[in-house]
Write a structure and sequence with these properties.
Length: about 300
């Protein structure tokens, strides 16, 4: 009887060990990297800021373990407040258009866009513009369950005033591939994995390498194998909640090229070193051009 009890105990330990090992390698459902930090300012303050900046014109997922950006370092970076609550990032691709993730556009009614700054919650920053928008458009084949075709654009009500702090970014050529390249991601996403952690008050950035999509598929299932996704390895630093829609860029002959937009990552947190998924913008140049009316070939 004693030997039977010992055998049962040994079996229980073995089963527990196996379950633990399987859990460590389990495929998890990915999560969007947008965030809900609460309104940075009252609606009236945003509108007043926009009016003041317009008057001046007539006479503006944190990166986990990233570095603080200086103003003008990422002049195409946009901070997007959706219905004064949900927070995303984006990229200025034209004086009146911001590119972001579809899930940052989906379900929104009012978008406010900050350009030219490096601080997300400071009421006033020199060189920054606050923009009200005309509307947003998401890709017709966007799938929020599989998280594919996750791309959208937002139209500004008035054109951004280009300066040393505000510039457009060049889009990747259609069909280009970047496997093995290392690029830069920037954003205002969360600083840690604590649920109550707010978005970063400062723009941050880090470098991440492009890896085979199978790396993301091993972590999240088969959806990342879709060609609308590119996979980035994130060990030591990463994009996080609040970075959604923000830029991933590479350097080509001294020129900054927008390659991806932050899409999804690990539900369990940003500090675990799990890979992250980005929208492969090279697959959407025609749709972006047709939607915005911008000729990216010229």
């Amino acid at each position: 009887m004693k030997s039977l009890s010992v055998a049962v105990a040994v079996l229980a330990v073995a089963v527990a060990a196996l379950a633990c090992a399987q859990a460590q390698h389990a495929v998890e459902a990915p999560v969007f990297f947008r965030d809900v930090p609460g309104p940075p300012r009252a609606l009236e303050e945003v509108e007043q800021a926009e009016e003041a900046e317009a008057a001046r014109a007539d006479g503006n997922l944190r990166i986990f373990n990233g570095d603080v950006a200086r103003q003008g370092q990422f002049p195409y970076q946009a901070a997007i407040f959706i219905d004064l609550s949900v927070f995303c990032g984006g990229s200025l691709i034209n004086e009146k258009w911001v590119l972001t993730a579809a899930h940052c556009v989906d379900g929104g009614n009012v978008w406010y866009v900050l350009l030219g700054g490096t601080e997300s919650i400071t009421p006033v920053q020199d060189g920054r513009e606050t923009h009200v928008t005309r509307g947003g458009y998401l890709h017709p084949k966007y799938d929020s369950h599989r998280i594919i075709n996750d791309v959208g654009v937002i139209q500004l009500r008035r054109a951004a005033r280009l300066s040393s702090y505000i510039q457009t970014v060049a889009l990747t050529p259609a069909g280009a591939t970047y496997l093995g390249r290392t690029g830069t991601v920037s954003g205002y996403g969360r600083t840690d994995d604590v649920n109550a952690s707010p978005v970063s008050p400062q723009l941050k950035y880090t470098s991440l390498p492009v890896v085979p999509n199978q790396v993301c598929a091993d972590a999240y299932g088969d959806s990342p194998l879709d060609p609308s996704v590119i996979c980035l390895r994130a060990e030591g630093s990463s994009s996080c909640k609040g970075d959604s829609g923000g830029p991933f860029t590479v350097q080509e002959n001294g020129k900054t090229i927008l390659v991806g937009a932050v899409s999804f990552g690990a539900r369990a947190g940003c500090s675990l070193g799990r890979p992250v998924g980005y929208t492969n913008l090279a697959r959407f140049i025609d749709w972006i051009s047709e939607t915005t009316g911008i000729d990216f070939q010229s």
